[in-house]
């Protein structure tokens, strides 16, 4: 791929999402309102072997110095896929001295739902929930908030619950990744942060592991 020229010399915003069986990559000019490239790669367990090739098919390594900001979905998601993409994003941000926005995959889903035709919580908050066989449920609580980045408040970050009874009384929606739609949301979050001049150091950006083996199942 040849990188299209930009007469204003605006840098690129690159977004990576691997919290499902597929890798999503988005490329957008900082300050633009729409992505220039959106690609989905159904890599599954071969992500570790195909990650760099997929990234370079969207933006060649020779063009990485033209990046101005990075964004990555931090999960919850598969242990290996999420970890590899977050590590890659952190490495690029460190080596290129770029800001890095880490956004949970649940928060991206919430923004997609809130901007859809039927917001799931009406005027109030709602849960996003993922069922885990024999473990319980992973759920996060979200609501619309124009004062928050991307217009979405993460009222409770995704964590493990024994069952859905603890989630009353708010509405519950299934936590389902949709690509490339959720990559568009990731670009939107990061673009809004850039427009508002929000700092985004790479060091705090880490994968979310609600089902960590070192933590006991909630009572």
From TrEMBL:
Membrane spanning residue stretches: none
Pfam families with a match to the protein in the record: TsaD (PF00814)
InterPro entries from the UniProt entry: ATPase_NBD, Gcp-like_dom, T6A_TsaB
Domain of life of the source: Bacteria
Domain Gcp-like: 66-114
Protein name, entry field: tRNA (Adenosine(37)-N6)-threonylcarbamoyltransferase complex dimerization subunit type 1 TsaB
UniProt gene name: tsaB
């Amino acid at each position: 791929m040849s990188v299209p020229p930009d007469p204003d010399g605006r840098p690129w915003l690159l977004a990576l999402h691997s919290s499902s069986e597929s890798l999503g990559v988005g490329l957008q000019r900082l300050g633009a309102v729409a992505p220039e490239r959106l690609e989905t790669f159904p890599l599954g367990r071969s992500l570790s072997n195909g990650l760099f090739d997929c990234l370079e098919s969207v933006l060649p390594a020779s063009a990485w110095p033209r990046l101005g900001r990075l964004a990555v979905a931090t999960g919850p998601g598969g242990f290996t896929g999420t970890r590899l993409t977050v590590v890659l994003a952190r490495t690029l941000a460190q080596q290129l001295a770029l800001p890095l926005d880490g956004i949970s995959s649940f928060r991206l889903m919430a923004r997609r739902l809130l901007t859809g035709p039927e917001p799931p919580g009406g005027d109030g908050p709602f849960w996003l929930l993922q069922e885990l066989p024999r473990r319980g449920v992973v759920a996060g609580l979200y609501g619309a908030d124009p004062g928050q980045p991307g217009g979405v408040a993460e009222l409770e970050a995704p964590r493990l619950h024994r069952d859905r009874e603890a989630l009353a009384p708010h509405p519950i929606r299934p936590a389902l990744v949709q690509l490339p739609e959720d990559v568009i949301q990731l670009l939107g979050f990061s673009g809004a942060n850039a427009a508002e001049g929000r700092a985004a150091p790479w060091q705090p950006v880490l994968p979310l592991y609600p089902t960590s083996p070192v933590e006991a199942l909630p009572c």
